Structure prediction request, 467 residues.
Amino acid sequence: MATYDLVVIGTGPGGYVCAVRAAQLGMKVAVVEKNPTLGGTCLNVGCMPSKALLHASEMFEEASHSFAKMGIGVSTPKLDLPAMMNFKQQGIDGNVKGVEFLMKKNKIEIISGKGRILGAGKVEVTAGDGKARTVEAKNIVIATGSDIARLKGIEIDEKRIVSSTGALSLDKVPSSLLIVGAGVIGLELGSVWHRLGAKVTVVEFLDRILPGMDGEVAKQFQRILEKQGFAFKLGAKMTGVDKSGKTLKAAVEPAAGGAAQTLEADVVLVAIGRVPYTEGLGCKEAGIALDDRGRVQIDAHFSTSVKGVYAIGDVVAGPMLAHKAEDEGVACAEIIAGQAGHVNYDVIPGVVYTTPEVSSVGKTEEELKQAGVAYTTGKFPFTANGRSKVNQTTDGFVKILADAKTDRVLGVHIVGREAGELIHEAAVLMEFGGSAEDLARTCHAHPTRSEAVKEAALAVGKRAIHM
Prediction:
């Protein structure tokens, strides 16, 4: 029976990063993976393939609509969807091979099969052929991630009624796409297929898009998407889908109740979120406590209710983000090694990779109001940013929220091109407890979009220069 210092179940961003950090700290490490490839949802059917298609579809749209006004004459671009899907697959393959390389480099053993915790120090791994082996470990980390959330009574076949997985691999562009859920996944995948020619309608149970994001940001971003051609039905729910005809007929009614209307679509994408994946893990039998939402319960040091068993990432509470899982993986490995691993949950950026992008870090205005925190606001639009003007990409703005007494930055929210890159100077500033004044007095290169972040910081003190 093989014995390890650490066995990590799951090789998504949280799991493989945890394994690498533990190996760096001198531990003998193994990872258990049930899928044929490493990397989890993120690398195989999530973050990475969606970004490949977002990039490719954006280039297609640029060539179709934007080149002419820049003086670039090209013939009307033709979509080769199989080639675009191959482009996506090349990216997946490259990243998966990268994780395999990291395992070899750090002498981490890969154990193929489905892991089940038998109790403290023991993991049973059942291979694809049904053969089981038991692995002993001083420590076990659960990093099994999350699965798609399903709508009751709606069967996902990944052909006509799809999850995010199926939406990444459609064999043709649907003429109409109905998306259930106006969160990050739905809006990103909706953007891909809208750019390639689909008519997109989004149904959302709440009265707003992007739940959890700053309200002002969500409103302006919705207007931008509507200008692009998205249609929204907010405060509504899909109650059923008739699959008998050539097109799907979805019954949609007000969330508060009322008469249903029928919406027709070639494809329905169910994107109502994700749920922790603990199926077959043996938590109940092993005595590992779950909360009322099916998440593994942990303490401040990632420990579960069973000694020597830890959990990180989407399977525990907190935002279901790959980078949150990575930070937890590093911190957990360091704690197991006797160090002081830590994650600052107040400074975890979030990004919507549409065009324009949406990014945020820290508190929203709604959260500050609810907590009774006095704050000041600084806003700056990209219409007043020189680089954005000359590139004719002026949608959006930067908003900075700072403590009214101390000027410490509490939250930053951006809608605009490259917002996902711009947010990180705010994250670094906030990690060090910086103020709006600190940011406002930091020299920014000209002409850059980043200057809009500096101007928003100046606006906190009512002294923006270019507005």
The first helix runs from residue 13 to 24. The two ends are 69 Å apart (CA to CA). The domain at 3-148+275-336 is CATH 3.50.50.60 (FAD/NAD(P)-binding domain).
